[in-house]
Amino acid sequence: MSTIAITLNDQDKSALRTAAYGSVALLAAAGAPHKAISQGSIALTSATGLTGHVLSVKSKDIALPGKNVAELAEQVLPALTAAVDLLAQQYPAEVDNFRSTVLVAVEAAQFAKGAPSPAVVAMAAKITAALG
């Protein structure tokens, strides 16, 4: 494991995982098909670098309680922005890797089975905006 991954504390790792996997959960809540969501999750576990080390760990620290899309979005969108900010402060060289990893997952979740629905496209745009 990379020494950079080891220097992140557990709370920081949890924040990155929650943001990344939350983006895929948000697309699922917006109506992306199950197969598409699987493709998005695979994209996250296929990451490299610090992001890859953090996202590939099987963990139960991802907390995304929410009863509807709005509640989930209120958690995930700020979490994405916070994750980018965290990396910008601690590991600026990793920001683009995290951002592109999440965007690849979003793209995979959108297009895994034909054209995405307008609701999924709109949510993907919100996720992209939250990433900065």
Describe the structure.
There is one protein chain. With 132 residues, the protein is mainly alpha-helical. It has one domain (3-130). Helix content is 73%, strand content 0%. The protein contains 7 helices and no strands. The chain has helices at 3-7, 10-29, 34-45, 49-55, 69-90, 95-111, 118-130. Helix 2 runs antiparallel to helix 3 (34-45), helix 2 (10-29) packs antiparallel against helix 7 (118-130) and helix 6 (95-111) packs antiparallel against helix 7. 40% of the residues are buried.
Task: State the major sheet.
Answer: none
Structure class: mainly alpha
User: How many distinct beta strands?
Assistant: 0
Low-confidence stretches: none
Helix content: over 70%
Strand portion? under 5%
Shape: globular
| Gyration radius, in Å | 14 Å
| Helix and strand pattern | HHHHHHH
Tally the helices: 7
Briefly summarize what is shown.
By secondary structure, the protein is an all-alpha fold. Helix content is 73%, strand content 0%.
Element layout with pairings:
Layout: H1 3-7, H2 10-29, H3 34-45, H4 49-55, H5 69-90, H6 95-111, H7 118-130
Helix pairs in contact: 2-3, 2-5, 2-6, 2-7, 3-6, 6-7
Keywords:
132 residues, mainly alpha
